[in-house]
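INFO  loader      accepted 1 record
INFO  loader      residues=161
INFO  predictor   begin
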Amino acid sequence: MFYLTTLERVVLESLNKSPKNIHQLVEDTGIKIKVIQNITQSLIAKEILEQQNTFFQITKISQKMLKELIKDKNSIKAEIQELIDYSLHLSLKENRGSFSLQKVSLSDKNEKIINSMFQEIKNYISQVTEKQQTSMTKKENIIFWGSNKYSDILEHISSGI
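INFO  predictor   done
INFO  writer      dumping tokens
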């Protein structure tokens, strides 16, 4: 089994909305044409895409396979790491976007309150997403949140040493 890169996922997200030609893919994703050409050729070679005239579309055969690839934990982990890395870079180095991280001591009560707030955010985003008309892929936002016990993270980090 192979994994999808973040850029391959973006192209597939765009094509999942509707078949597109190369220029429509560039416009929808904001990815440079040369990169789109390389990605589409790679996805054609993997038999995930097909080209009919000038339009690219996801092959019927690969629909089920794609659902499995998209849900693959290693692929998800790699995509999340890449998105967080670039979000952090944009926020800290280029002053674009926002990225916050704080280490805090929480009582059990406050931890439950924060987890409840996270759930409210998740519910709100789900509602907004359902009501939202299909937009250009490049205009979508990446939103992440969550928390972990610092001790659990430190234990995981130190186990690799």
